[in-house]
Amino acid sequence: MPSGKQSSGGRRRRWVAALGAAALGIVGGGAFACPAAAVPTNVEFVTICTPPPIAGIPNIEGPTTAKISVDNAAPKVGDTVNVTYEVVKPAAGNPVDIDLPANIMKPSGKVVLGGAQTGEIAVEGPRENAPVGGLEPFPGFKMTGSFTVTKAGDITLSPGNYNINTNYIMSLDTPCVVKTPPAPVSETVKATGGGDPVNPRTLALSAATGEPNAFVTGTLAGFTPSTPVTLAGWNGTSITADKLTTTATAAGTQTMRVRIKDPATVGVVAFEGDTWDPAKGAGPQPYTLTTGGGGKTLDQNLKSSVKAGQLTMTQAGNAVQMSGVDFGQGGASTGALQQVTVKDFRGGPAGWSLTGKVTKFTGPNGAYIDADKLSWTPKCATKAGSPSVCAAGSAGPVGGQGATLAQTPNAALTGGEFTVDAGLSLNVPEFTAPGEYAGVLTLTLT
Description:
Layout lengths: L7 H4 L4 H4 L23 E7 L10 E11 L9 E10 L15 E11 L3 E6 L16 E8 L4 E16 L1 E9 L8 E5 L10 E4 L3 E2 L3 E8 L6 E7 L4 E9 L6 E7 L6 E6 L8 E6 L1 E2 L21 E5 L15 E6 L3 E5 L7 E7 L2 E2 L5 E2 L4 E9 L8 E2 L3 E2 L5 E6 L7 E13 L12 E5 L1
Parallel strand pairs: 11-18
Antiparallel strand pairs: 1-2, 1-8, 2-3, 3-6, 4-5, 4-7, 7-8, 7-9, 10-12, 12-15, 13-14, 13-16, 16-17, 19-21, 20-29, 21-29, 22-28, 22-30, 23-24, 25-27, 25-29, 26-28
Protein name: Beta-xylosidase
Keywords: Signal
Organism: Streptomyces mesophilus
């Protein structure tokens, strides 16, 4: 027999897999074009969203409506411009008939620069949202960031990829990418200023000292995209023999490791082209070659940590179709509980208990079957390596007062992963009125 609508208390944990799937309610896709006369404030573009793997559904594409705004549309070279990326209408909606609470969604994304200045701006928004009703569209959101103007001229700003992180029971990400980048231009900044443009190139080193022949890692940013870049030692006036050349990424970044062995090296620089040019480079960052330990020893105290997680459960589905019985004969209407997976990653001394209770089974014209007519035969399996061992509850009636489905005991160290099943049997009286009967089995994990 089909189960009815689930209560809000029992279904909270069961929809964990759906809560991060911010690409499930997408409206059908297609190509979108902007008018040729003027760039609109609001632009529409096709996005492809990837639900979390736990949701078990494929990618879905659909339209996003967004706009970009700035606090200064006429900056000078060297000014910092604050940018707001507003997703007016996300390509997503609540996929289930379950209300989602407020303040569980945190957006992040990129704004793409074009024209006189190229690159990407990282933007993010706060974890705040109004409650979202079942099957309703997700609300819009805003993300903010900033960039420094390095060149005069028209700089265009277009919406880029964005991600919706939901943190409800567990943290899940739903990235949405622009299907055909770049998205339409939403804002144009007209930058002015004379003289040399600001050098946006930066260099960060993994260490400031090292023994001869040790590697040092340089992290480059702000370089011209897809151009040759060199990481090299510096002797105070020019580069040394310690150098490595590769190509910057399309975002103007790169991570490089160079071996430092020239005793003249007192720093490290990064630059574009064949020779060091401060206008097209970054650094020098100080670097000191050290000598051997001379037989002495040094101790370093190492620390690490293990972060405690949460107690969660998910289920394979929320509907159970039980077998039918004949009018006048009655008997057992049987079925199987949709498998429940419990994950205890808290790492403390507390065990857990999974209980269930059932409503009466309502049928046509006020007919019903009492809740105490439903019995179950619980089963519980423990994943290998789990500190705790799961014990199944006793076979017998469930009823409206409830019964234990499975549990683990308190111990010095508990935790692990468990799967819970149960055979279900509804004892239908002989002359129960014909028709469909539905009840709600609520599972509670504590």
